[in-house]
Amino acid sequence: MRYDIAIVGSGPAGLSAAINGKIRNKNIIVFGTKELSGKVNKAPKINNYLGLPGLDGKALKEHFTEHIEKMGITITEERINNIYAMGDYFALMVNEKMYEASTVILATGVEFTRPIKGEEQFLGRGVGYCATCDAPLYKNKIVAVVGYNHEAAEEANYVSELASKVYFVPMYNGEKDLNDNIEIIKEKPIEVAGENLVNRLIFKDKEVKVDGVFFLKDSIAPNQLMPGLEVEGGHIKVDRTMATNIKGCFAAGDIVGKPYQYIKGAGEGLVAALSAVSYLEKLKKSN
């Protein structure tokens, strides 16, 4: 099945795009979490969202949830690891599963976790962002898993069934339900190092030899999510129609730049959806 519009992100920008795509009778799919945006939930008071003064984040989230439910929009709680432009459609990868869509709207928010030294340099040469995708490459090898969320522990357990040794580096607080053969390192990594391939992960007071390092984050940098995507100053570069440099791909919300405001994101989500609909109409006429 090929969707008309795939929306990656369930914050104000993504949900606004979903609502407006649905209004125009497009077949949409939204990837994200039913908790919607973590930043929305934590906001103590919001006074600049037109028509809804004085709400806290939790109340605004409830309005968002009620709206999408009335529109019959559901959230697909699966993490997109990579998106590839295939010409007349996009392939969205979730581990070993693939979704297809004629257009994509990226609304993933800002990647606040900056890469450490060597992380981007060794991407594809020992550094990865999806343990369940690439773990078979490290059978009987030594792997470090740097986890930024609770789901990372599950992926580390999977890797430990294949690798000869797994180090787990938790970057979050809370319990870690890990297999007995996983060694926890409670230090912050500062560098991924190696020659042609990764061979060690460096901490302030020590280093460990590894064949690969997985960084498991809530979201990854946009140009790593979609190869070839133009990024400027850490944000996706778009025009006034929210179009990126890749035909059929649009972006909205915090990921395209400041100000980081809910109402700005919602407005951009609308524009991105209208632009995607217009693009779909042009595709239809050309075929």
UniProtKB/TrEMBL annotation:
Pfam families: Pyr_redox_2 (PF07992)
Keyword Nucleotide-binding tagged: no
This protein's record includes keyword Oxidoreductase: yes
GO molecular function: thioredoxin-disulfide reductase (NADPH) activity
Top enzyme class: oxidoreductase
Parts forming coiled coils: none
Keywords: Flavoprotein, Oxidoreductase
Domain FAD/NAD(P)-binding: 3-268
EC number(s) from the headed UniProt entry: 1.8.1.9
InterPro entries in the record: FAD/NAD-bd_sf, FAD/NAD-binding_dom, Ferredoxin-NADP_redctase_2
Protein's name in the database: Thioredoxin reductase
